[in-house]
Amino acid sequence: MAGRKKSKTTKLFVLDTNVLLHDPTCLFRFQEHDLFIPIVTLEELDMHKKGMSEVARNARQASRFLDEIISGAEQAIENGIDLSGPSREAATGRLVLQTQAIHGELPASLPVGKADNQILGIVMALKGRDAHRPVILVSKDINMRIKARALGLEAEDYFNDKVLEDTDLLYTGMREIDSSFWERNGGDLKSWQENGRSYYRLRGPDVPGLFLNQMLWQEGEQPFQARVLSVEGKEATLQTLKDYSHGKNNVWGITARNREQNFALNLLMDPEIDFVSLLGQAGTGKTLLTLAAGLTMTLEQKLYSEIIMTRVTVPVGEDIGFLPGTEEEKMTPWMGALEDNLDVLNKSDDDGGDWGRAATRDLIRSRIKVKSLNFMRGRTFLNKYLIIDEAQNLTPKQMKTLITRAGPGTKVVCLGNIAQIDTPYLTEGSSGLTYVVDRFKGWGHSGHITLQRGERSRLADHAAEVL
């Protein structure tokens, strides 16, 4: 009876190649359901295995996983190999490989020679053969899913790697509070002054929902901005922020133009915070604030020895081919954003005239190194200020590789806009940037801010709104 019940509830998922290329561990992520891998999928996997790209690496890893699963279980291939052993009980279904020709009746308009159509034919045949349970195609290819549904077949995207189903739920790093917050949580409020900052200790029902280094703010006659310094059970300590919108607290000549920029500068300028992530649309000031804080802490406060800037080299349009020169020179076309921001930061010092500005610019450039992502493995950065720009184009695995480069005394800042992903196979939900924001929230040495307001110009703001 249990066996019959299981066969009713379990589904048979047919995997398209792009799912394995996107996430090789997908073989172990379908829980109690069974997987079917067509021969065409294996052929396409073989075609993608050469090279050093992320896709090629994933193809090789998927092949290794398949080899491990099949080794020693050759007799069970046709009926399905139990996945509970290879997946360490993460998946309890079976893996079925196609061992013979399966013919599904496809409309004459679909050419049989195309791999996608062969997979659709197999799904159709399996649906006819396994009428007692759902047969579902899993593919990252939207057109493939449309074709499947047009033929009356079930098709789904692969969601398992998504950190969040809806990016609107992504942690913003801040929270607006109102007077009722103080009524609920300020029963036995304690406050004191220390080193020019005010501290508040409060208890109440809202406290367990707060995260370390989350920014709390309140509008009104007396605007309130504070950072959550500690959370222990139902007791939390808040610390008021430094006001970087005031000229006397400027950072390399830059002042915060809005509330979120002030939050960001408080995180960037705090040496106790080792990891900062800034999300925001184009023109919200992510790079400018990060560089201004980096220059202040490197050249003035001498907390870091140099600034290292890296970014994913994914072109928006067609690629322009090979570039001559050293690693630094090859990265120059990708670093227009760095040059533009240095122009702004260098303008603030008018005392020295043109010569003084040129000298300052040379000094600044000597302390900023531009590095390519491709050569990051095996490196360790000591006392560096590491900026990862365009981080939305990184996979979670690449993000882990980069952040684990940090040695003692290094601060890592991730910048990006998840609405501008240029890498195929990555979506807002599965981007490495979404991944780190979600995983780092609540750690005492990290902070995150989602910048909302563009500060470029009225033209840029209007364009962002209407175009």
Task: Name the features.
disordered N terminus; Rossmann fold; 467 residues; globular; 6-stranded mixed sheet; alpha/beta; 18 strands; ATP-binding; ATP binding
Structural write-up:
It is a single chain. The protein is an alpha/beta fold. It folds into 3 domains: 2-156, Rossmann fold, CATH 3.40.50; 172-240, Elongation Factor Tu (Ef-tu), domain 3 (Beta Barrel), CATH 2.40.30; 254-466, P-loop containing nucleotide triphosphate hydrolases (Rossmann fold, 3-Layer(aba) Sandwich). The protein contains 15 helices and 18 strands. The strands form 3 sheets. Strands 3-4-2-1-5-6 form a 6-stranded mixed sheet. The longest helix is centred in the N-terminal third of the chain and has 17 residues, at 54-70. The chain is globular, with a radius of gyration of 27 Å. Residues 1-7 and 315-320 have low confidence and may be disordered. GO terms for molecular function: ATP binding. Keywords: ATP-binding, Nucleotide-binding. Residues 11-146 form the PIN domain. In the N-terminal section; belongs to the PINc/VapC protein family. Belongs to the PhoH family. InterPro entries: P-loop_NTPase (IPR027417), PhoH (IPR003714), PhoH2-like (IPR051451), PIN-like_dom_sf (IPR029060), PIN_dom (IPR002716).
Structure in a nutshell:
Helix content is 33%, strand content 19%. It has helices at residues 2-9, 17-22, 39-47, 54-70, 115-129, 142-150, 179-185, 259-268, 286-300, 327-331, 336-347, 353-366, 396-403, 432-440, 458-466, and strands at residues 12-15, 34-37, 81-82, 94-97, 135-138, 154-156, 174-176, 190-194, 197-203, 215-218, 224-232, 235-240, 275-280, 306-311, 368-372, 384-389, 411-416, 446-451. It has a 6-stranded mixed beta sheet. The protein has a 6-stranded mixed beta sheet with strand order 7-10-11-12-9-8, with no helix packed on it.
